[in-house]
Each structure stands twice: as structure tokens, then as C-alpha cells.
Write a structure and sequence with these properties.
Layout lengths: L4 H24 L4 H7 L4 H12 L4 E4 L2 E4 L2
Antiparallel strand pairs: 1-2
């Protein structure tokens, strides 16, 4: 199976979003829907999807509606 240009672009965008979200955690100590919205001007629907993706990463811990980096 081969990766198309569109898929490559989507993967790069997701990687950039992941880096941005981790930087928010480093700056604020956590990330939630509110501080993500302040940093990324997209609809709530997409913010929730990005946070759901973040929940799948092994170095992220979700407590209530906040996500933290696990050291």
C-alpha cells in the first residue's frame, strides 16, 4: 500500500497539531478544550477530535477534561 500526497499532507498536519498541543501542555501545565481553542482557530468538533487523538498517545494522561504529559 502506498501513501498519497494528500495522506502525506494530512500526516504532516497531524504531526504539527500534536507538537502544538504538547507545547501548550508545556506552557500551561495541561491542555483542555479552552486553551486549545485559544491557540488553534478551528471548530469545537475538530478540537475534540484532536484531543481524542492526544488521548491515544502513551505520554499523555487524561484527568477529567485536562490532559497532562507523563514524565
Amino acid at each position: 500500500y502506498s501513501v498519497t500526497g494528500v495522506q502525506t499532507c494530512a500526516l504532516r498536519s497531524l504531526a504539527k497539531a500534536k507538537d502544538l498541543m504538547k507545547n501548550i501542555i508545556k506552557k500551561d501545565g495541561y491542555i483542555d478544550i479552552h486553551n486549545l481553542k485559544e491557540n488553534l482557530n478551528v471548530s469545537r468538533k475538530y478540537l475534540i477530535s484532536l484531543l481524542d487523538y492526544l488521548d491515544t498517545l502513551p505520554d499523555i494522561k487524561k484527568i477529567d477534561n485536562q490532559r497532562f504529559l507523563v514524565k
